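Morning. Coffee machine broken again, so started the prediction first thing and wrote up yesterday's gels while waiting. Chain of 161 residues, entered below exactly as on the submission form.
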Amino acid sequence: MRYVPAGAGIGLALCALALQGPAAAAADDSELLISPRNGAPGSTVTVSTTACGSDVTYGKGTAGGDEFHLFDDNHTGVLTGHFRIPEEAASGGHDVVVKCPPSIKITDTVAVERSRPTGGVHAGFGPAAVGENKPTLLGGAVLAVTAGGVLMMRRHRSVRR
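Came back before lunch.
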């Protein structure tokens, strides 16, 4: 029965690796850097890209039907521009399109979130956080499995004595 501690250690290591999966899946491979990704109507959004190349110093962008310009910000090959989310913008994803010479076109999405004060304050557990606490539940499950393994090991040792 020497395999119980080894099995518990392997299970714990696999659980730790499984918890890192969602973070790796959230990585963004887009050529546009949009900050912030989620904005409220009236907020300013910054867009930058390196996809136009190091010799290009100007680009044009559109977001929600409004145009904005991107300029070289003294970092060779990085174009940066700003736009304001219109006050009348609907909630949901809105396309951001950047074009630069000779024929480069890059598209990404910015999410618009209209705030509607309903329910409780989003401060952790409770009605406002229903459905958003999956990492907490997964962490709790890992702790429960680990505690069960420790109890089994202690019980096994006490039976052998």
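Strands lie at 32-35, 38-39, 44-49, 58-63, 66-72, 79-84, 92-100, 104-112. Going to sketch it on the whiteboard this afternoon.
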